Amino acid sequence: xxxxxxxxxxxxxxxxxxxxxxxxxxxxxxxxxxxxxxxxxxxxxxxxxxxxxxxxxxxxxxxxxxxxxxxxxxxxxxxxxxxxxxxxxxxxxxxxxxxxxxxxxxxxxxxxxxxxxxxxxxxxxxxxxxxxxxxxxxxxxxxxxxxxxxxxxxxxxxxxxxxxxxxxxxxxxxxxxxxxxxxxxxxxxxxxxxxxxxxxxxxxxxxxxxxxxxxxxxxxxxxxxxxxxxxxxxxx
Length: 236
Description:
Blueprint: H1 2-5, H2 19-28, E1 34-40, E2 43-51, H3 57-84, H4 90-116, E3 120-123, E4 127-131, E5 137-141, E6 145-156, E7 159-168, H5 171-177, H6 181-191, E8 194-199, H7 207-219
């Protein structure tokens, strides 16, 4: 009854109810939901973007500072090698340069690339696409999906998140087709048939609406050609 009074009559039984969290969901509404063009495997089609939050900017700043520190150490070692004519330290210089390069690349992705791409789930007539902040794509054809499963994940003492996952019919075939065999073995060990995992914490929009939209089109294949016409307002 509490769920129905709050306008959440479709609240999944598997999700945990919390008044503060429900208000947070409601406040997000359909924030950031847009129709956009996406190209996957040479095929371009329209889809509905269900946006996720960008990674926090401070992470990119930390990587930038780390990169500059390691680069400075490499320069100091190189100067020392010239001054004392001891070139054995060049191995150490190379190590610090590599570490600095990795950190600076991570900073570049966090501060620049991640700001140019909106991460999220893109629902198209043929597939569900999980797009990361750097533009990397996890593509799942509707025909490969076995179900959209809601659940709760404990993240610490008194900490939890309402989640939903996209399960595939054959994880082995999916991961091989995706070219991620090593990652697939790890994913299967952790989550079985789940290939896309979504937390309520990362959704910029109402995560309950995102869950029901994907489940709706999974259960109604005849409506998928009209996917871009259906998102007009927050049904919660």
